[in-house]
Amino acid sequence: MKKFVKINFKRSSQTRWSAKHVAVKALLNDFPDVVESLEELKKTSNASEAKYEASSLLNAINNYKLILNLMIWANILDEINRMNIEIQKQDIILARSVSLMDGLMKTLQKMIENLMEYWIEEAKEVAGKIGVEPILPNK
């Protein structure tokens, strides 16, 4: 994995939003490299367990719906993280915190209202880099 991916992935924290933001953003930014490293591992590993795990992970992540959800989640976490950093500053006052929370709610509401068209196009770009058909299943 280190041969293809520039950073070390860490587990997402159950409690810290900033850690979730870092974990999701890292995966999204290096998604094509992660896929490439898993394909290489699947082809070249001598360990059958490693080949099986790489194959299973590839089947799970070579999925347009996953890419789309990852992009949406990364951007939601980006907004939350930005606000989180601001409200943790020592010189923050309550009125500013309330204003930041209000701004976050408005931003998230705009994302909900205008979400799909924009994110579908963004996800198509990532999917194209790894050869995944940008098709959402109809259910």
TrEMBL record:
<protein>
    <submittedName>
        <fullName>Uncharacterized protein</fullName>
    </submittedName>
</protein>
<dbReference type="InterPro" id="IPR052958">
    <property type="entry name" value="IFN-induced_PKR_regulator"/>
</dbReference>
